[in-house]
Amino acid sequence: LLELEGETRMRKLNINRTHYRNKEAARRWYYDIVRKIHPDTNRDARAVEAMAELTSIYNKMIGNG
What we know:
mainly alpha
């Protein structure tokens, strides 16, 4: 999540236009990824930073960013 950018990151994270048009699809996508990277479940040192980046992406999807 932190090492990829642009189209590569979008492909790797399975982000598509539907996520930007459909808030429910964006929400399901977000919570699916949260389960994997949240600092409570992922002990990686950069988990907090990854969560911040994920939240930023999600906010852009739903029009809050």
